[in-house]
Design brief:
It is a single chain. This protein is of the alpha+beta class and 203 residues long. The protein has 2 domains: 27-74; 85-199, 60s Ribosomal Protein L30, Chain: A, CATH 3.30.1330.60. Helices cover 62% and strands 11% of the residues. It has 8 helices and 4 strands, in the order ααααβαβαβαβα. The protein has helices at 2-23, 25-44, 46-74, 76-83, 102-114, 132-152, 177-183, 195-199, and strands spanning 87-89, 120-125, 160-166, 185-190. It has a 4-stranded mixed beta sheet with strand order 1-4-2-3. Strand 2, helix 6 and strand 3 form a beta-alpha-beta unit.
Length: 203
Amino acid sequence: MTLFRTPFVVGAAAAALLLGACATPSPVKTGATAAAAPAVTAPAAPAPTVAATAAAPAAAGESKVASVELPATRGAADAAASKARPYVYFDFDSAVIRDEFSASIDAHARQLLAAPEKRLRIEGHTDERGGREYNLALGQRRAQAVAQSLQLLGVPVNRLEVVSYGAERPKAEGSHEEAWAQNRRAALRSQAGDRLAQAATPR
């Protein structure tokens, strides 16, 4: 009886060892699965880090831009003055303002609105071709076109003076296109500065 129980105990112990051996892979699989999970999570974790890093320089860049805007704002008046050219040139037999002079007229308007005591004299000129009466009328239309543009930008009409000289005061001498192109113009002269004195002298 005792001899029979001993093999039974030995068999039960062997079965327990066998079950233990079979149960061992289970934690290994779980470990592999757990190891795989961090491997998937690890690439996901850097993504927010990269996004945060990209966001940080952008935020820093914005603050730098904001600090740069202040000097630009303080120099806005100087920038407008540099754009305010003294002449607006026209095509042959035309009083239409070309797009390239829009910024200059806008700068003149800003200067006038910033200094209420200033007035502007707008002189219309033509080249030598055409009759005297026709050129005087064309010069008037050119000067008036500039004045109307300034009025649309808010400059009061009583601060603008319009006059035409036709072909009588050429800017460039000569009977060729280069000279004619220089003479087809409207001259913008501030009545608060020394340009008004220059306006009285023939050109």
